Amino acid sequence: MKVAAAGEKDLDCDHQRHAGLYGAQRVKAMSAVLLGLLLSVLDYAIANVALPSIAHDLNAPSSRAIWVVNAYQLANLSCLLPLASFGSRVGFARMSQIGIFLFLITSVGCALSQNLLELTLARALQGVGGACIMSVNIALVRFIYPHAELGKGIALNGLFVGIGVALGPTIGSIVLSVATWPWIFWINLPLALAALAMAHFALPQTPRSETQADIPGSILTVASFALLGIGLDGLMHGDFLPGSLLTGAGLICWWLLLRYQKGRREPIVPVDLLARRPFLLACLVGFLGFVASNLYIVAMPFTLASAFHRGDSTIGLLIAPWAVGVAVMSFVVGKVADRFPASVLSSLGLLLTAFGFLLLWLLPLDASNAAIAWRTLLAGCGFGLFQPPNNRAIMVSAPAGREGGASGMLSVARLGGQTTGALLVAALFTIFPHPAFICLGGAMIAALTGSALSLGRKYLAD
């Protein structure tokens, strides 16, 4: 089976099930999806920019302050697949509303935190709320857009991811220039309230699975991701004994989970989907792309502060071109994502991203802001070209009735890559006194590897 694009037939498409919405209904429903998405992405991007300030104010080393990002991502990643499965049973719209409400409550907890532990725990709960939103995000798009226009819907999704990431550093810089870091969480409240209202009134009701919720499988899935993630982080920080024990426990949980999932009709870990080679390859390409992006995004604020000697307000503005490039290119690629294969578009995108990272890596330490900005913009344009076609390839590789599993796995590939990238940054900051350009080099290698795998998928998928 081949991934459908450029005239290939979608063997698993149910045109009646995926007929989509039209006119005002589509506009309202997609607006609700995008507002929830913007809430999740905006907060993540703002938190990245504030890491140096949080580390300073809470008297925490940089390698530990990164857990403000890692806790959100790890909780998000651990809960994505169970929540995607649960969303298939309670309805994707209801799951999105639950996530927005939880995000609202935990934003208050983040803003009121008095130390790094409190903030990390609040961010972990916020990550669960984000997982509720992201686990069903693309599944909702699958029902809002007709099959022939799915690429447009996914590209629009990517456009708003880019807008959120672009606005995040800018808003973060503005907030940090006039107020303290807790205000980056207080500003979530009006957006969350608006998103909750729109989700209630505009999101479509989707078919629900009649399969019973798998509570043991859900617990094993969360434990597998969480123990492995925390254990690997311990190893990255040099805590070898606890890190090894937790990593080992995580691997045992994974073994038990995969044994338990065998033969289940709708497994929480979608082993049935991963057995489809086009689906697996698209997920691997997505994973590598996001490893590359987070090696850049998490390390770059520290790079700009320590190597290029930029202040908080300038750091946000110099990271923003990445997201501008993602947003602009996502809009452009939306016009062709349904006509050209991901093996071409996504490969070119990651190649362009790697080239942008190479140009940043070659910069002298006295480089101007303009020199940093246009290279960052170029890398972001490449990432915007890569993402929508690859996401489309993931969704069209899944059969009717497995939209929740595919949507969850798409988010797992994204967050798994982001978490891996962040863990690598933490390790490099622990091992090397000045790891800034090593992180950029690693990002370039990950992007090139993803580009090569994407280019070969039309041969490997047969």
TrEMBL record:
It is found in: Cell membrane. It holds the Pfam family MFS_1. Residues 29-459 form the Major facilitator superfamily (MFS) profile domain. It comes from the Bacteria. The chain crosses the membrane at residues 32-54, 66-86, 98-117, 123-145, 154-177, 183-203, 215-234, 240-258, 279-302, 314-333, 340-363, 435-456. The keyword Chloroplast does not apply. Signal peptide: none annotated. Keywords: Cell membrane, Membrane, Transmembrane, Transmembrane helix, Transport. It is a multi-pass membrane protein. InterPro entries: MFS, MFS_dom, MFS_trans_sf. This is Multidrug MFS transporter. It comes from Gluconobacter japonicus.
